[in-house]
Design goal:
The structure holds 2 protein chains of 2 kinds. Chain A is of the alpha/beta class. Chain A has helices spanning 2-6, 23-41, 53-66, 85-98, 107-112, 129-138, 204-214, 277-285, 291-295, 305-312, and strands at residues 45-48, 75-79, 102-106, 143-145, 162-165, 193-196, 225-232, 235-237, 251-258, 269-271. Chain A has a 6-stranded mixed sheet, sandwiched between helices. Chain A has a 4-stranded antiparallel sheet with strand order 8-7-9-10, with no helix packed on it. The longest helix of chain A has 19 residues, at 23-41. By secondary structure, chain B is α+β, with helices and mostly antiparallel strands. Helix content of chain B is 20%, strand content 35%. Chain B starts with 6 loop residues before the first helix and ends with a helix. In chain B, the strands form 5 sheets. In chain B, strands 7, 8, 9, 11, 12, 13, 15 and 16 form an 8-stranded antiparallel sheet that branches. In chain B, strands 2-3-1-4-5-6 form a 6-stranded mixed sheet, with helices on both faces. A 6-stranded antiparallel barrel of chain B has the order 17-23-20-19-24-25. Classes of the chains: A alpha/beta, B alpha+beta. At the A-B interface, α2, α3, α7 and α8 of A face α1, α3, β2, α5 and β8 of B.
Chain lengths: 315, 433
């Protein structure tokens, strides 16, 4: 060591401070990176916005990605017609406040015109695929952001971040492109499009922790409130014109909240007194049932229900 | 879900600021990888009741005694019908100490393609062997792929220890074999753990059947292995993704691939070599003084140069190489062969350029690491190529920087991803001299 002291030493530049990047920041940075890649490489992206927490987080990432410029793409809501009024009010207020453009693809108008027929079980989730694909075609959208997460379901666990759909909107799990590092290959033929999932690597708990950290605004139905509900297939559903309750189903008043936001006919409430984001996070951390298992009737149709819907072009 | 949640005690158990570890698993057929992953998820209490019920039901349908944990990682119906695993599945679990993203790569069909994909974002790889068989050909291949892809930490899980009566000598022999193979590839951080995935020994809970083993359990190791590289020790690399324009505003948006950038730093715009200075680091939440990889930020520069997507912002005296021709190692991911003379697209960071494969320099035997002359690289083969590109690229060797040293080879006509590319010769770079 003494030799070093005697020789003239070039002043070593002071190193900047080290910092460990916590997981939410790593996930946020990844999501922002994905959104900027898509905005740069595609002509006409669109962000699917249901008013649910995942789409609210996606929109928040989009605002962060392009600030101080506005979000450079419109939102699209595939409206089943069985909406929670609180969610539609939230959607419209947010769109207005942020000065965004909203495209609505309406399942109801397809049913009214006879292009789609109501299912016997009354659920409209599977009916969303046709209006979604038509809206993509008519608006020439070439990249469609969705809030799907890989932790939700096993078909989603194998989904790419940038996922190619053929001209019929179909997903072929065997023809997926390998996805390496942070390099996304979104090249597609005319008529094809990609689905993009910036929250692929997020879990339900990550989403809620992020909502808390960022103060992301959500519809009130995510937090506990008294509600008239009735039980069907083990789930608490909200009565409405969509078709419930039917004979033998008894309406009760319960204190509930929603863990997901979707079509009223197949989205169940959970009994909960979690009235703040902190309560919700604590509740999810100790929950024993998955988000879809607790609240989605359509995924109970069969073991491969999501896989089948995805193949046909569903979100 | 009931409402009987004690919010305060549940909240107290959560550490909101944990680190994220991305890792991958790989093993040969019948090594029990699905069972190991299932065990890890189950014993770390990451499996919720409805999922477990479905697995219990499926186990009974198959006439199994107890729960077949492998079914927790069961895939798509398309796979069950054909008895195959299509490709990498991603799984997520959390312990009080860390969040984990697991890339679960199937062992048989297209193992190289899948493992290259899974390992490309992994900091750690768990390889599996059967204690009765030890290190086999495929273990050596997986090890070589992990070394090639720059995975820093390796774990060998010696599974089915119960079937060799938890024999220390069986474990030692495998551990010695593995250490020799890993060190030949320049991987110094490796741990060999004796486990029984089906019984749970040393996966999450330490086993009383292996008193001679004083190392960590698999989960202990995953929770404590260092995550990431300290950004301050790396050269800064900021690929420009997108130019943000607003009234009186022009900023360059991107994600720091490596290193640290501070306000007032002198910088160079590559590949043009223009010198300027960072006047601000913007985020949605306001200006910051410093950004560390992998943060996404927007930079404002002192001079109004023509900077755009595909440019790379770096510090002076730390510039990457600017090349129109370079050698690289590629892993062929497509059923189409790669040949000399092929015209392709090269996607490197945020830049896509036309390129041509000048020559295939060799094919690598990833079991023996021997190199042989070749004129084409077929699916799952790894080899060397010389590439020529239509516009200069600012590249680092993959061994130096994973993100500015990697690229995709894309078919110009149908857009398919043909190959994964790594600048330079990462295996030679990593090997002890």
């Amino acid at each position: 060591m003494s030799a070093i002291v005697e020789e003239p030493v070039e002043a070593t530049p002071k190193l900047p401070p080290s910092r460990k990047v916590p997981h939410l920041e790593a996930l946020e940075s990844e999501g922002i990176h994905i959104m900027r890649e898509v905005a740069a490489e595609f002509e006409r992206p669109v962000l699917l916005f249901s008013g649910g927490k995942d789409s609210a987080v996606m929109l928040h990432l989009a605002r962060k990605a392009f600030a101080p410029a506005p979000v450079p793409f419109p939102l699209m809501h595939v409206d089943t017609g069985h909406n929670f009024p609180e969610v539609i009010a939230y959607r419209d207020a947010l769109v207005e406040r942020l000065g965004l453009r909203l495209v609505v693809a309406s399942v109801q108008s397809y049913i009214d015109s006879g292009k789609l027929r109501e299912r016997a079980d009354g659920t409209r989730n599977p009916l969303q695929t046709v209006p979604l694909l038509d809206a993509i075609t008519v608006n020439k959208f070439d990249a469609v952001f969705g809030g799907g997460r890989r932790d939700e379901e096993k078909a989603r666990a194998k989904e790419r971040i940038v996922s190619l759909r053929d001209e019929f909107g179909q997903w072929d799990p065997r023809r997926q492109r390998p996805e390496l590092w942070n390099l996304y290959n979104g090249r597609h033929k005319p008529g094809e499009h990609v689905r993009v999932f910036p929250l692929s690597n997020w879990t339900e708990l990550d989403v809620w922790e992020y909502v808390e950290r960022e103060g992301v605004e959500l519809p009130a139905i995510y937090f506990s409130h008294p509600r008239e509900v009735f039980k069907r297939n083990g789930m608490w559903l909200t009565p409405g014109e969509w078709g419930g309750p039917k004979g033998g189903e008894v309406v009760e008043r319960k204190v509930v909240r929603y863990r997901t936001v979707g079509d009223m006919s197949c989205t169940g409430a959970v009994e909960s007194i979690a009235s703040s984001i902190g309560d919700v996070i604590a509740e999810i951390a100790v929950t024993t049932i998955t988000e879809r298992g607790a609240t989605r009737a359509d995924d109970k149709l069969s073991e491969a229900a999501m896989e089948d819907r995805k193949r046909e072009g569903y979100f | 879900m009931t409402s009987a949640v004690d919010f305060e005690s549940a909240a107290a158990r959560l550490d909101r600021d944990v680190e994220l570890l991305r890792f991958a698993t790989a093993g040969s057929v019948d090594d029990g990888k699905s069972t190991l992953v299932g065990r890890l998820l189950h014993d770390s209490k990451s499996v919720l009741a409805d999922t477990l019920e479905a697995v219990e039901r499926a186990s009974r349908d198959r006439g199994a005694e107890g729960v077949e944990l492998a079914l927790l990682t069961d895939g798509l119906r398309a796979e069950r019908e054909q008895g195959i695993t299509i490709d990498v599945a991603y799984r997520y679990f959390t312990t009080p100490r860390r969040k984990f993203i697991l890339a679960d790569t199937p062992g048989h069909v297209q193992y190289t393609r899948n493992m290259v994909t899974g390992a490309s974002t992994a900091e750690l790889v768990v390889l599996l062997v059967d204690a009765r068989k030890g290190v086999v050909e495929q273990t050596r291949r997986h090890l070589a792929v992990a070394a090639l892809l720059g995975v820093r930490h390796l774990v060998l899980a010696v599974n089915k220890m119960d079937l060799v009566d938890f024999s220390e000598s069986a474990y030692r022999a495998i551990a010695d074999d593995f250490a020799a193979a890993a060190e030949a590839l320049g991987i110094s951080d490796h741990v060999v753990i004796p486990v029984s995935a089906s019984l749970g020994d040393n996966v999450v809970d330490a086993s009383s059947n292996t008193p001679w083993y004083d190392g960590p359990t698999l989960l202990d190791h995953l929770e404590t292995v260092p995550v990431g590289v300290d950004a301050v020790t790396q050269a800064a690399r900021f690929p420009v993704q997108y130019v943000v324009r607003a009234a009186d505003y022009r900023g360059y948006a991107g994600q720091l691939a490596s290193g640290v950038i501070e306000r007032d730093d002198e910088v160079v715009i590559m590949p043009a070599g223009l010198r300027t200075r960072i006047v601000a680091i913007d985020t949605f939440d306001g200006e910051v003084d410093i950004a560390h990889a992998p943060q996404s930020v927007t930079l404002r520069l002192a001079d109004e140069f023509d900077v755009g997507r595909g440019d790379l912002i770096v510090h002076p005296r730390q510039e990457p190489r600017v090349a129109r021709e370079f050698d690289a190692t590629v892993c062929q991911l497509s059923e189409r062969c790669l040949r000399a003379g092929d015209r392709v697209l090269i996607k490197h960071t945020t830049r896509v350029v036309k390129g041509v494969v000048d020559s295939i320099t060799h094919r690598l035997d990833i079991e023996t690491l021997d190199r042989a002359a070749a004129d084409a690289l077929a699916l799952n083969e790894i080899g060397g190529v010389s590439l020529r590109v239509a516009a200069p690229l600012a590249v680092d060797d993959y061994a130096t920087d994973r993100l500015t040293g990697s690229f995709l080879v894309i078919d110009e006509h149908d857009g398919q991803t043909l190959a994964a590319g790594l600048v330079g010769d990462p295996l030679a770079a990593g090997r002890p001299q």
